[in-house]
Amino acid sequence: MLSELQVNQVFLACGSTDMRKSIDGLAVLVKEGLGLDPFAPALFVFCNRQRDKVKVLHWEHNGFWLYYRRRMPTVLRCGSPGENCAGCSTDCLWSSTRRIPR
Q: Where are the domains of the chain?
């Protein structure tokens, strides 16, 4: 469960992401697109163009977890393309549907 994870930061990828990407494709986006380490103790969050689907990538011990959520009751507001990614605590992401402040 997400509430039991030992992570320090949550990174929200600004703009939209192709939801057909799976673990390997999202890990490449984290490394090359965001310039971050996909094996870090963090959650990497991606949303689609309509902002009604979310994928969360997380590394734990010996493998990746990929969480997928669709038809959220509210629309997640991600940043615009070209904006820098933002990181914050896990409480920030799940308690709010606005862009995570830096």
A: 2-95
